[in-house]
Design a protein that fits this description.
Layout (H helix, E strand, L loop, with lengths): L2 E5 L4 H10 L6 E7 L3 H11 L8 E7 L3 H9 L4 E6 L13 H8 L4 E5 L12 E6 L3 H4 L2 H10 L4 E7 L1 H14 L9 H29 L4 E7 L2 H8 L4 E6 L14 H8 L4 E4 L9
Parallel strand pairs: 1-2, 1-4, 2-3, 4-5, 6-7, 6-9, 7-8, 9-10
Antiparallel strand pairs: 5-10
Helix pairs in contact: 3-4, 7-8, 9-10
C-alpha cells in the first residue's frame, strides 16, 4: 500500500482515525489539516514522530481553503483516505453534511470511515475483513482492495450475502394476486420453502464461486449467508473489530449521493470502520 491520507481537524475524535491508519502497512502517511497555525503544525508533528519507524515516511501537510475541496485535491494523489465520522451527535440525531460525508460521496479514492463514539473510546484492532456482496459486478468492485488488505495486514477475508426471506414471501404473495389460476393458498408455504431453498442455494453457490479464485491465490477466505434485508442483516452480523469493505453503489445503480443506500446506512449505524470503494476505482496495487 502506498500513500494514505489522514485528514485531521484538531479534535481528539478525528485523531482516532490515525490510530487505525497507523496499523495499515502504508509506505507513506500524510497527516493533513486545513487551516490552523504553527501550533497545529507542532501538534501534528508530535503525532507523526512516533509513527516514523522503519522505511515508513510520515509527512505533515497544512493547507488553507475549503476543507472538503482541499481533502479531495490531496486525495487524488493517494491510494486511500482514512478519516473519522462521528456517527450520531449527543442528542442521538444523525450527522449529515459533515466533511467526512462530502468527501466519501465525491472522492474517487477509496475512503475508510472510522466511526468514533467519544474522545476516549478506543478503536478496536480489526480481526477480519468483511465484504458484503449482492451478486452484482459493482459490489464485486470492492474485492481487489479487500483482498490486498487481507493479504498485507494480514487478516481473514469474509464474503457475505444477505437473503431476504420476507422478501421472498412477499413476492410469492404478490404473484398469487396477479395469477388467476394460482394454486390454493394452502400450497403457499410449500412454494415459499422451495423458493427459499433455491434462493439460498444460488446465493451459496455464488459466494463459493467468488471465493474460489481468492483461495487459489492463498487467501484465507470464508463465506456466509445472512438472513434479512441487507442493511439489518449486515448490522446484526458486523462486529466492532471487523473492517467492512464495500462499494458505495450496488444494485440501486449510480447515485452520486449515498443517502438511503446500504453503504450510507452502514457508515452511520455500524460500530465497525467501513471502507467505501467508489465505482470505477481500479484494482488496488499489490
Amino acid at each position: 500500500m502506498g500513500r494514505v491520507l489522514v485528514p485531521l481537524d484538531g479534535s481528539r475524535r478525528s485523531d482516532k482515525a490515525l490510530d487505525l491508519a497507523a496499523r495499515l502497512p502504508a509506505r507513506e502517511l500524510i497527516l493533513f489539516h486545513v487551516g490552523g497555525d504553527d501550533s497545529e503544525r507542532s501538534r501534528l508533528e508530535s503525532l507523526a514522530a512516533p509513527l516514523r519507524t522503519g522505511e515508513r515516511v510520515v509527512e505533515v501537510e497544512i493547507r488553507s481553503g475549503d476543507a472538503t475541496d482541499e481533502i479531495l485535491a490531496a486525495a487524488a494523489d493517494c491510494d486511500l483516505v482514512v478519516m473519522a465520522t462521528q456517527g450520531r451527535n449527543a442528542a442521538g440525531r444523525l450527522l449529515f453534511g459533515s466533511t467526512a460525508d462530502r468527501v466519501s460521496q465525491r472522492s474517487a479514492t477509496p475512503t475508510l470511515l472510522v466511526r468514533t463514539k467519544g474522545e476516549d473510546a478506543a478503536i478496536p484492532v480489526p480481526v477480519r475483513i468483511v465484504v458484503p456482496l449482492d451478486g452484482s459486478d459493482l459490489a464485486e468492485g470492492a474485492l481487489p482492495i479487500a483482498a490486498t488488505l487481507a493479504r498485507v495486514i494480514p487478516l481473514p477475508l469474509h464474503l457475505v450475502r444477505a437473503v431476504d426471506l420476507d422478501g421472498i414471501r412477499a413476492t410469492i404473495q404478490e404473484q398469487r394476486k396477479r395469477e388467476a389460476d394460482a394454486p390454493p393458498l394452502k400450497d403457499e408455504e410449500h412454494t415459499y420453502e422451495e423458493a427459499r431453498q433455491l434462493t439460498e442455494q444460488r446465493a451459496s453457490s455464488y459466494l463459493a464461486d467468488t471465493a474460489e479464485p481468492l483461495a487459489e491465490q492463498g487467501q484465507d477466505v470464508h463465506t456466509g449467508l445472512l438472513q434479512g434485508t441487507p442493511v439489518f442483516a449486515l448490522l446484526a452480523a458486523i462486529q466492532p473489530n471487523d473492517l467492512v469493505v464495500m462499494t458505495s453503489h450496488g444494485r440501486r445503480g449510480f447515485r452520486r449521493v449515498m443517502l438511503g443506500s446500504v453503504a450510507e446506512k452502514l457508515v452511520r449505524e455500524s460500530t465497525a470502520p467501513v471502507l467505501l470503494v467508489p465505482m470505477r476505482t481500479p484494482p488496488a496495487p499489490a
